[in-house]
Design a protein that fits this description.
Elements lengths: L1 H24 L2 H35 L4 H32 L10 H30 L1
Helix pairs in contact: 1-2, 1-4, 2-3, 3-4
Length: about 140
């Protein structure tokens, strides 16, 4: 549980720390290429890590009682919030970039960039809260 939660939360955090700042400062023509290439790796990986973290947390919660079980359930719920919000908010934006040839900008790219950045910062906070809950469950 801790391994998958750490990889999931860490993956989200590293995008926030390393990529968001760069993407904000990049010219649009560079941004659309870099963002699309990053999605190529992250889009399949992060949902898998999130699902493994949630599944292992459910197994842990079902096999424990008290505070550790409660923290595991809360962590699982937070991961669920991330997954659903990512499907509803980030995925439509990601798809707009994936549908185009590399280097092409979707309509409204500047607003998409701002929306995705704000969403990812919120997602990062929730991911860190989930990681804290799951780490607290095994402490």
């Amino acid at each position: 549980m801790a391994l998958f939660a750490g990889l999931f939360g860490g993956g989200i955090l590293i995008v926030a720390v390393e990529r968001l700042n760069l993407w904000r400062r990049m010219p649009v023509d560079q941004y659309v290429v870099d963002f699309r290439r990053s999605l190529y790796r992250l889009d399949p990986l992060m949902p898998i890590l999130g699902a493994l973290a949630a599944l292992s947390a459910v197994v842990f919660a079902l096999n424990t009682v008290g505070r550790p079980a409660l923290l595991a359930w809360v962590g699982t719920g937070l991961i669920g919030v991330i997954m659903v919000a990512s499907i509803l908010i980030a995925e439509p934006i990601n798809s707009k970039f994936r549908r185009l040839s590399e280097g092409e900008s979707p309509d409204g790219v500047d607003q998409l960039r701002v929306t995705w950045r704000r969403f990812h910062l919120a997602r990062t906070a929730v991911a860190l809260a989930a990681l804290a809950c799951l780490a607290g469950a095994i402490a």
